[in-house]
User: Which sequence fits this backbone?
């Protein structure tokens, strides 16, 4: 018997495939539009583009957030009102995302009221209780409303969770509690992070003794952990000429040799002098080319090296100085002692001066260095002022009796010391 295959061409079969293709294309178009809108929302800044993104993905909270942000930054009263509505839509579309609640809180704080902003911030806190930023923003919101106790508690929690907030927290409480450091520590705790930040704020307020006392109470581990604050404190002490405190901070910050008061750093020039990034309490050489300054191994009074200077100035007007700042006690008698060797052709004009580091007053000046001398000591006595914390010992040229005062030759220095 002959078997025949019969093909059934139903209407459903003929129509079904094209419909499926069309539906697939529609779905694909929607997905692509949503993806493009979602991707662009994070970077959008122009209001017109933001409007397009919302039309492409109206159910995506990110596009509404982007539009709200763009509207807010147009600074138009009408746009600002719309921006609040768009922030509300973003929250409605993604009610469990704390970031949209924070954005809404920010907007309400600026354009509505602190009370309405508080509602949004509290919702963000409910969703993200472990995030320091949420506690910080709620705390500041409550502070602006006069709810001081609860505000300070939220700020305390924020600092505990993120120590980088310690400095702004201290600055905020400084105004609220009128600079009462004991109350500040009582309100937000006396953790190492808080105390290190408080030291910086106290120093900014020129309460240097309190700042240093609190910093001294930190553990060695904390002084290393909060190095950035130590550097700020060092700069404040140095700029305000609190040299003794600055030296202490310098020793904590730097990994190099620990320096002592009343002693020269690198007194015999056994180490190279750092001219690129010199130590504030080390040898510092001024810029220029005359004279040439370096370390010499051939001539030394002790050790292996000495400081070496080569002069070749036909007029004597060019002069590079070298100096070092040394921390000392106030109202105290000292004797500066150093050794030199010279082979010069010049008037006797090279002298060492001792200068008060804060006031710039010359406290003492040595006799001029003679043109020819083997290793010879040079000494001078001086008394510091009642306010002196440090002196600068520097090489200078005394005034020359003639307008043109050439100098050429070589001079060596070694073994600097300061004695009481």
Assistant:
């Amino acid at each position: 018997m002959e078997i025949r295959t019969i093909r059934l061409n139903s209407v459903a079969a003929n129509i079904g495939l094209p419909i499926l293709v069309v539906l697939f294309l529609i779905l694909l178009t929607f997905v692509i539009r949503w993806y493009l809108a979602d991707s662009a929302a994070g970077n959008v800044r122009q209001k017109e583009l933001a409007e397009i993104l919302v039309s492409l993905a109206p159910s995506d909270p990110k596009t509404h957030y982007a539009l709200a942000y763009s509207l807010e930054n147009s600074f138009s009263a009408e746009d600002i009102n719309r921006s609040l509505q768009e922030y509300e839509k973003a929250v409605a579309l993604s009610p469990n995302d704390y970031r949209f609640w924070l954005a809404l809180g920010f907007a309400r704080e600026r354009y509505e009221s602190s009370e309405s902003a508080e509602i949004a911030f509290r919702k963000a806190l409910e969703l993200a209780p472990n995030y320091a930023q949420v506690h910080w923003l709620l705390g500041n919101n409550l502070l602006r409303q006069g709810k001081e106790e609860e505000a300070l508690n939220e700020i305390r929690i924020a600092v505990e969770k993120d120590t980088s907030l310690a400095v702004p927290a201290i600055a905020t409480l400084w105004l609220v509690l009128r600079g009462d450091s004991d109350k500040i520590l009582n309100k937000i705790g006396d953790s190492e992070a808080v105390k290190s930040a408080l030291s910086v704020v106290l120093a900014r307020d020129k309460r240097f003794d309190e700042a240093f006392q609190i910093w001294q109470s930190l553990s060695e581990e904390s002084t290393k952990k909060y190095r950035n604050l130590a550097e700020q404190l060092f700069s404040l002490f140095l700029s305000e000429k609190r040299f003794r405190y600055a030296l202490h901070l310098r020793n904590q910050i730097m990994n190099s040799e620990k320096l002592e008061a009343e002693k020269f750093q690198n007194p015999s020039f056994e180490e190279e002098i750092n001219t690129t990034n010199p130590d504030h309490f080390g040898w510092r050489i001024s810029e220029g080319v005359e004279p040439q300054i370096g370390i010499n191994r051939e001539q030394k009074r002790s050790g292996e090296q000495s400081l070496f200077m080569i002069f070749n100035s036909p007029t004597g007007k060019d002069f590079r100085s070298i100096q070092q700042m040394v921390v000392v006690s106030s109202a105290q008698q000292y004797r500066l002692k150093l050794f030199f060797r010279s082979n010069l052709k010049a008037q006797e004009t090279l002298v060492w001066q001792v200068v008060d580091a804060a006031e710039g007053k010359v406290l003492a000046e040595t006799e001029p260095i003679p043109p020819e001398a083997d290793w010879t000591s040079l000494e001078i006595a001086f008394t510091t002022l009642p306010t002196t914390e440090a002196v600068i010992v520097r090489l200078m040229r005394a005034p020359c009796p003639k307008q043109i005062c050439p100098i050429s030759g070589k001079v060596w220095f070694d073994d600097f010391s300061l004695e009481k």
Notes: The first strand starts at residue 284 and ends at 285. Residues 11-41 form the longest helix (31 residues).
